[in-house]
Amino acid sequence: MLIRWKIVAALVLLLSGTAFAAEEPGISATEIKIGGVFPFSGPASSIGLVGRGVMAYIQSVNDRGGINGRKINYIAYDDAYSPPKAVEHVRKLVESDEVSFMFGQLGTPGISATAKYLRSKGVPSIAIVSGSSKFTDVASYPLTTTGLVSYDTEGKIYAKYLTRALPNGKYAILYQNDDLGKDYVNAFKAFLGKDFDRKVVTASYEVTEPTVDSQVVNLKSSGADALVIAGTPKFAAQAIRQASVIGWKATVIINFPSSSVGGTLAPAGLDKSVGVIVGTTNKDVLDSAWKDDLGMQAFRVFFDKYLPGADITNGSYLTGYQQGILLEQILRQCGNDLSRKNILAQAKNLKDFVVPTALPGIKVNTTDTENMIWTQMRLQRWSGTSWQAFGDVLDARSE
User: Fold this and answer.
1) Cβ-count burial of 374 within 10 angstroms (0-12 exposed, 13-18 middle, 19+ buried)?
2) Of 38, 121, 214, 249, whose CA is between 20 and 30 Å from 300?
3) CB of 371 closer than 8 Å to CB of 141
4) Do 316 and 47 form a contact (C-beta atoms < 8 A)?
5) Rounded Cα gap, residues 338 and 354, in angstroms
6) What's the pTM value of the predicted model, to 2 decimals?
7) Residue ranges per domain, the chain?
């Protein structure tokens, strides 16, 4: 009788597991189907390489046997940084590919265009690669977690630094004319208050423009002592190069999405980029200080195997690698409960999680009311051969 009861119980568990899998889109006994959208082409193609990094890391997970016996089927499409294409691809991922959830979607315009649809379908969107401050509003985006320090926080960190380094200076901001760029401008407004109009001059650009050379020339004529570039790598590279060409000896700060050596500084000219400052969460693969660091050694081994021939100095790959580590952690925390509800719950339940390639002191913590995966940064300056970190780790809650 006892043996018979055990057999019956096992059958019930097996059948209930099968029924569970059938009820959950994208989940089977052997597979987890996840969607992503990236600008693999178009004006932001350099940061689209984040997607290549994510895909490579997922391949490494699958080569290790997957997670709890399931392989990850990651379906990623190219939206070329075009919101209409993002909408088309996200609908396909949800309605045709039937993914369980979205992970790592990149690009503020595309994420903005698809967020309402994903919420209406009850599809979580985890670790989006956008720092737009609006996405940190949990009430408005309850199914979302963010994968970058918010642009608002980052902008306030830069404003605070400049007011200390150049207290009597004038600051120029070149910004992309969308949510990404405007968040940095608004952060400076919030930090400087009534002094903003007196201390800051701005110029915007559209992602469809061929160059930003004229904007940089106009900003130099304002007499500004610092140039803050809030955009994507192609335009940041142009701005750094043009500032050097016209002899503008300003303190140059670029935003984290444009911090890649291979994607921004090399096209601008490594020599022309000396002195450029950026906030980051990551160790620098070019910095000899991390030569014996276990986390960076593991990244180099991974890179050689899964991204052969790619440019390891392009920080977008490292961002994608870190995204993959976070995805693996979230799925492992889920155990066998891969309902959308639990996937979202675990994405908001990361406790002092340390990504091995993150700078010392930087940890990941998320909660039901705090959906930002990264809330800390440290400033670093380009020496000509590597990034040199300086100052303390800065937190989102204490700019």
Assistant:
1) buried
2) 38
3) yes
4) yes
5) 23
6) 0.85
7) 2-149+294-375, 151-280
pLDDT-based confidence at residue 23 (cuts at 50, 70, 90): confident
Biggest CA-to-CA distance, the chain: 90
The structure tokens listed for 354 are 């340390």
Task: Say how many C-beta atoms besides its own lie within 10 A of residue 247's C-beta.
Answer: 7
The domain made up of 151-280 is a member of CATH 2.40.50.140 = no
- The pLDDT value recorded for residue 398 is 53
Q: Domain 2-149+294-375, CATH 1.10.230.10 — does that match?
A: no
Cα separation of 38 and 21, whole Å?
28
Question: Is it the case that residue 160 has pLDDT exceeding 80?
Answer: yes
Distance between CA atoms of 50 and 322, rounded to whole angstroms? 10
**Quick one: DSSP state of residue 217?**
H
Per-residue pLDDT tens over the stretch 221-266: 999 999 999 999 999 999 999 999 999 999 999 999 999 999 999 9
Question: 54: which 2 tokens?
Answer: 């994510």
pLDDT digit string, tens, across residues 295-336: 999 999 999 999 999 999 999 999 999 999 999 999 999 999
Q: Do residues 225 and 170 lie in contact, with contact meaning Cβ atoms separated by under 8 Å?
A: yes
Distance CA 297, CA 357 (A): 9
Residue 270 is which amino acid? L
C-alpha–C-alpha distance, residues 105 and 118, integer Å: 12
Q: Residue 241: which residues within 8 A CB-CB, separation 6 or more?
A: 267, 268, 269, 272
**Element spanning 215, H or E:** helix 213-220
